[in-house]
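Before relying on records like the one below, remember that each one covers exactly one chain. Contacts with other chains, cofactors or solvent are not represented anywhere in the record.
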Amino acid sequence: MGMGNINKPALSLENQAWLEQTYDKLVVKMKAECARIGTMIPYSTCDGKYHDLDVPGGIHFWTNGFWTGMLWQMYEATGDETYRKAAEGTEERLAEILVDFSNSDHDIGFLFLPSSVANYRKTGNQEARIRGLKAAQILAGRYNPAGQFIRAWNDSEMMEKVMGGTVPISGWMIIDCIINIPLLYWASKETGDPRFTGIALNHARTAQQYIVRADGSCNHIVAFDPDTGEFLDNPGGQGFEQGSSWSRGQSWAVYGFSLSYRHTGDVSFLDTAKKCAHYCISNMAITDWLPLVDYRAPLEPVKYDTTAGMITACGLLELAEHVGEYERRLYVEAALRMLRACDARFANWNPDEDSIMGGGTFFYHDPDGSNTEVPIIYGDYYFIEAILRLKGKSLFLW
């Protein structure tokens, strides 16, 4: 059925006390949110409240699976059937994506790993399994054999302009996809078909070569000629500029390469994850463990993105699963510092208001500021996953 709880690391008395207090607040907050939200699909809050599908692209938007992920995590931790029922109801809504998948892209793993695949892993639901396998087929269908990568977004002149591209989007790969490819690893294990893993491995190795730089920083986007696979460009993406270091992209690298190591045993992925992790740790250590939106941007204005910290923390806790005792301490301690710093500065524990973790930023260049330092659903998901990992109560979703 797949992997269940992750190993619980040993903590100092101070960190253990913080963890217990945070978990208790989390149980209260999520119980209240689940009662209010049910099978809605939230993204960000307006005046302290979530609204259903308030996102561009409607049901296909890439963040729509994170609420179900939160629900499955809380069901694993508490056994409260309310979470399971809400997760299953929300999954039924997401199933529409698989009927008309023309708007699906590389992020389909974000939609179905925390929903259908989580459901199957936890309950054995066969309909959920089939949905997960359909999603894996859609993701595999985006593979470009000439360049050995999974194509990112669909054709969009607006996307090309926003992301700073000068070459067609049909040959783009992005770092975000590294954490979607576990859907393919899972599909191979479920079906015995090695093609899914073959595609995932090739994509991960292309990302190692072209996305991860020698110092552990990452490009967000790499553009290839879609016909020949020839490298063409590194568009700037959601960070400050071309050649900068968008922090959420860095976090995807830390977690994604750690997961590729878990699924394949290829030590090169573990080494890449470590290199990216050390780069993130070094940068967050000089900003009091609060992640900037970009680690290579002007000192002013200061812009934070807590989602990068939450994802990085989960990646570090995953890394800690695969190293020795004395090395493990580095990653667990750094993860705790990120979590505690963001909690102290940005968390909202009022059970009457939606969202937990504020301070999320979607991209660096935000003209009206509406997507800068705001609550974003995946910040909450990864915060919850990290807390439950530390408690030994998490459900493995990736």
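The chain has a mean pLDDT of 96.
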